[in-house]
Amino acid sequence: MLCVEWNQVAEMCLYLDDMSDDSRILCLCSRAFFNDRDLYYLGLKGIDISKRNLTDYGEDEDEDDEQEAFEVSSVSEVTVEEAELDSEAELMLQMGLPVQFGGSAFEKNFVPPETCVKQHKIRKKKKKKTKCSKDKSIKEVMDNITDVCEDGSESIRDGCEDSPATTGEEGALDPTSVEPSFQENWDRYWNQYGQGILWQGWVTKHEEPELSGGEPWNCPTTKEEWAEHYNETYWHYYGQFQYWAQQGWTFDEVSECKDLEEADKIPNHTVHVPPTSTESIDCLSDCVNGVKNINLDLKGMERDSKPLSVIYESHQMQNPESLEAQCPCDPDQSEPRDVGSADRDASSGHTHTSQPAVKVSRNNSSCGQTPVNGEDDDEDEPPECRQAKIKRSHELDAEENPCQVAAEVSTVLGLKHGTGQKYGGISHFKHRTLRYLEKGVKHRSHFLDMHRPVKNRHIFFSEGSEVKPLKSKTVNKKFLKGVGEASSDLLNEDLSLQKVEESPSSSDSEGLDHCSISDPSAQCRPSDNKELLENTEDPDVEGECVSHDQIITSPSETTDSGSRRLGSLLPSNAIWCSDPATGMEQESDADTNLADTRQLVSLEIPDYLQAEAEENCNDSFSKAVDNCKKKRKKPKKKVQSLPPEIASDPHLAKYWAQRYRLFSRFDEGIKLDEEGWFSVTPEKIAEHIAQRVRQCIPGAVVVDAFCGVGGNAIQFALAGMHVIAVDIDPVKLELAYNNAMVYGVADRIELIRADFMGIACDLKADVVFLSPPWGGPDYVSAETFDIKTMMSPDGFEIFQLSQQITKNIIYFVPRNTDVEQVASLAGPGGQVEIEQNFLNKKLKTMTVYFGDLIRK
Ligand SMILES: C[S@@+](CC[C@H](N)C(=O)[O-])C[C@H]1O[C@@H](n2cnc3c(N)ncnc32)[C@H](O)[C@@H]1O
Ligand SMILES: C[n+]1cn([C@@H]2O[C@H](CO)[C@@H](O)[C@H]2O)c2nc(N)[nH]c(=O)c21
């Protein structure tokens, strides 16, 4: 299946210094969205997330994610079986917000604040009576438990329950638990921006809103939809506001009158708060007091509803970061930066677009958080963006501020502009332009998690604030470690530990000995490694290793694929492992003994990974959960044995929970090693990349230069391509082979154990796919990822060698990669497509396409 949605969002032109404008690099920015929530939840089955932190289970799998963990208690009533959260609700959870503020989960539990409290409480009481007895027992237990908070210092009652950001349903829903100053601030915010946000959202959903039949909130045909829209928008922004407020953000209120004057004295219309549901309409309108009086800028809104085609221009962006330091938006720097006439000159005539465009300038006055009502399509920006408003004008003016433009681009598009060395002798880009290709990019971007950095923190709440800061990564890690230690005595026999101990893993030295052999006649596949062999489609997959010291022609070269087939020169000390069953060959290296460096550290298994662990738990919490589970009469799940690399490292637990999103056929015998777990491409993304290749170059021969455990190679093969899969690590090739067997595509993948850097010049193919190591999961801790210096091998050298094979290259890079550096790979006058990959609305990775693979 292809991605849920694919959009071209912007076109960025990068102009080279000292070169004509024809040499500018065109960079298409696109987004691919995938949804594999079902696979994620499948991986959580058997894990009681009510007891643990969801981030431990990989929804936020990166080691250094900005989205910090949310407290256990915030999902105290959420168990995997019933966790049917939509993405928005989940985002709320991740932000530490009550799930009720998100999407469908919200709708089920709609509770307007303030004036609706009483009404709501009555409803709640009624609801409560009919609630599952699980709630009762859990509540009971929760009342008794005093040591469940992860930080160990506070009880649920004292430390968790009170905070709306960290509570379970009860605490979260009680609006009185929201600090009054927050509510006041929110009301002011909503009064000021609510109408703009509402209208902008409406306009985005409806190409050209038809106003002849009346305002959408009055028109009988749209009334209901408007109500829903209102509801969704209100609560979405409420959640956003609460989150950013917790992060220390404040917003500066501006005088409405002043705004209106600035907004060209736009005719006023009144927004009537529409019915949201039969029960809540009146109270909602009261809740959002003041919205009735907000003036709607229809004229401005109409302007905004036109397709966006906006150019941001920035000049001399050699060092946007250093410029950012002088940004006049910085409250500490009151003096505006004078861009100067030279910059203005440089800006003229560099639109280079086929479509009409509006240049965007940064008005200093707008830096000071002065949104212009209805004038600006940023009207719906979340609080963090209010600090840097952009005002449209038809000419660049002296007040344009390149650093803000860069910041805007990265805020909206989530792209990183670094100062890293450029490829191919390009010194730097003298200026750049950016044109949106999609309407409502900014609005849509708000609903995506792009790991935006949070800057400009202010003290917002009083010291007595009950809003608890989100849990830190350190705590999270400590917790994980602790769990690993504490749970060693809870080992469950069902987990086949004995088997784990006895059976060497793929990353275990015993297992490896079979492949890192010097005797070429030795068996390549570890015949005694049942772990590795079990569940493969063909039980007789043992093969022989054959030594080669000459040019080896791969079996596929004799197939009917003509000149496109591989002819590879292999290192002279290479050993090929041939599988008689499939005719596949594998190479092993006599010099390599990775086994020495790999050990099983410990066999402690966290209790929460034991699907049926509750049988061993005598505490009342477990009993309560147990009771609930029994009530649900769900069939008992088969206990799955934990792979040793997971069992030995509690940090890998999160990847285990994600196993089906990595390989949907995981249970059929998929095997990974430690590196494989954290670096394999999630199946949906790999499938999408493969489909793109299939569409552009059907039947291509693809070199997967760093194939790892085969995540991409398998998808290329499934899409009908012939794959030459290279990896330096023989263990990876073992695993890739095993996994390819599971998917029934082993015969379409040639596995070569070699250093890609050494054999690249001898490979022939139509497409090269590059997914090199990024230096481990810590790649996220870099503000901007530099593909030259942070990758090993050097990302530029990898690319240069690949260019010798073909111009059709796919580079799979971290989401925080310096886009200008990546774009420079295209060379002067070249083109590149940078595709952001979103998994469940969260930016995961970027895929960069070159040559014929760019979607025009
Ligand atoms: C990130 S993993 C690839 C993951 C793969 N795309 C997947 O989905 O399974 C990178 C792989 O590159 C391999 N590697 C590292 N240096 C290499 C080199 N010089 N040549 C070939 N492979 C290399 C590592 O052994 C590792 O398996
Ligand atoms: C450390 N890591 C994560 N991913 C990929 O990024 C996603 C989000 O973290 C992971 O799911 C994985 O696909 C990696 N891909 C490559 N090619 N190399 C890596 O070192 C790597």
TrEMBL record:
Residues 534-543 have a biased composition (Acidic residues). GO terms for cellular component: Cajal body; cytoplasm; nucleolus. Keywords: Cytoplasm, Methyltransferase, Nucleus, Phosphoprotein, S-adenosyl-L-methionine, Transcription, Transcription regulation, Transferase. Gene3D superfamilies: Vaccinia Virus protein VP39. Residues 348-372, 550-560 have a biased composition (Polar residues). InterPro entries: RNA_cap_Gua-N2-MeTrfase, SAM-dependent_MTases_sf. It comes from the Eukaryota. Signal peptide: none annotated. GO terms for molecular function: RNA cap trimethylguanosine synthase activity. The keyword Nucleus applies. Pfam families: Methyltransf_15. It is found in: Cytoplasm; Nucleus, Cajal body; Nucleus, Nucleolus. It catalyses: a 5'-end (N(2),N(7)-dimethyl 5'-triphosphoguanosine)-ribonucleoside in snRNA + S-adenosyl-L-methionine = a 5'-end (N(2),N(2),N(7)-trimethyl 5'-triphosphoguanosine)-ribonucleoside in snRNA + S-adenosyl-L-homocysteine + H(+); a 5'-end (N(7)-methyl 5'-triphosphoguanosine)-ribonucleoside in snoRNA + S-adenosyl-L-methionine = a 5'-end (N(2),N(7)-dimethyl 5'-triphosphoguanosine)-ribonucleoside in snoRNA + S-adenosyl-L-homocysteine + H(+); a 5'-end (N(2),N(7)-dimethyl 5'-triphosphoguanosine)-ribonucleoside in snoRNA + S-adenosyl-L-methionine = a 5'-end (N(2),N(2),N(7)-trimethyl 5'-triphosphoguanosine)-ribonucleoside in snoRNA + S-adenosyl-L-homocysteine + H(+); a 5'-end (N(7)-methyl 5'-triphosphoguanosine)-ribonucleoside in snRNA + S-adenosyl-L-methionine = a 5'-end (N(2),N(7)-dimethyl 5'-triphosphoguanosine)-ribonucleoside in snRNA + S-adenosyl-L-homocysteine + H(+). Residues 152-178, 320-384, 498-566 are annotated as: Disordered. Residues 334-347 have a biased composition (Basic and acidic residues). Catalyzes the 2 serial methylation steps for the conversion of the 7-monomethylguanosine (m(7)G) caps of snRNAs and snoRNAs to a 2,2,7-trimethylguanosine (m(2,2,7)G) cap structure. The enzyme is specific for guanine, and N7 methylation must precede N2 methylation. Hypermethylation of the m7G cap of U snRNAs leads to their concentration in nuclear foci, their colocalization with coilin and the formation of canonical Cajal bodies (CBs). Plays a role in transcriptional regulation. Belongs to the methyltransferase superfamily. Trimethylguanosine synthase family. May form homooligomers. Interacts with CREBBP/CBP, EED/WAIT1, EP300/P300, NCOA6/PRIP, PPARBP/PBP and SMN. This is Trimethylguanosine synthase. It comes from Engystomops pustulosus (Tungara frog).
